[in-house]
Amino acid sequence: MFTITIQLTSINAEKLSETLPPKLQFNVNLAIPSGNPFRRDNQLIVPFTFTISSIPPVVQIVLKGNAVVISSDKKELEKIEKDIREKKMPQPLIQAVFTNMLAESIILSRSLGVPPPLPGMPQLQPQQGKQPGEKHKFTPNTVI
After folding, report:
1. Is 86 helix (H, G, I), strand (E, B) or coil?
2. If you write DSSP's letter for every residue of 16-61 in order, what string do you get?
3. Given the DSSP bridges, would you call strands 43-55 and 25-31 parallel, antiparallel or unpaired?
4. From the CB of residue 45, how many other CB atoms can be counted at a distance below 10 Å?
5. Percent with pLDDT over 70 in the chain
6. Do residues 34 and 45 touch, judged by C-beta distance below 8 A?
7. Which residue of 47, 69, 76, 132 lies most exposed, with the fewest beta carbons within 10 A?
8. Peptide bond preceding 33: is omega within 30 degrees of 0, i.e. cis?
9. For the segment 74-131, what is each residue's pLDDT rounded down to a tens digit?
10. Are 26 and 106 in contact (CB under 8 A)?
11. What is the pLDDT of residue 78?
């Protein structure tokens, strides 16, 4: 069993425009490894770069850091290192980096005063045939 910790080495977040369009699309890119992974004792250090840009260009966020895989089992670290060199990234490593960097980018977006890079919420369909002031009619499948 291994543990993954995330260490940021560079944070660059920039608001490119003062006016916000009604709709923003985000391009999200995770480059892992973004450099040569290396070993230090019972750790495998994997550099990464996480980039978010918006269309139209309103915000750009670039986060660089290291994912540190820690294991007391040397064979496990060797297997992970071999998989990375063969471009078979372990899913737990990708997931740990992506979720941590997405959370960081949400915080940075809020600080910059721009919408967070989240998928859009589905549009609610208006209910048909409902009069103003009419009480809700619940059915057994209604979710509150």
Report:
1. coil
2. --SSPPS--EEEEEEESSSS--EEETTEEEEEEEEEEEEESSSEEE
3. antiparallel
4. 16
5. 82
6. no
7. 132
8. yes
9. 999 999 999 999 999 999 999 999 999 999 999 999 999 999 987 544 444 444 444 5
10. no
11. 92
DSSP state for residue 128 in the 8-state scheme: T
b (16+ CB within 10 A) / e for 109-136: beeeebbbbeeeeeeeeeeeeeeeeeee
d(CA 25, CA 119): 9
The token pair at 79 is 């297997």
Q: What is the pLDDT of residues 49-82, one digit of tens each?
A: 999 999 999 999 999 999 999 999 999 999 999 9
Residue found under tokens 């967070």: 116
User: From CA 74, how far away is CA 42, in angstroms rounded?
Assistant: 7
Under DSSP, is residue 136 helix (H, G, I), strand (E, B) or coil? coil
pTM over 0.85: no
106: tokens are: 């949400």
Q: Which domains does the chain have, with CATH numbers?
A: 3-75+82-112 (3.10.420)
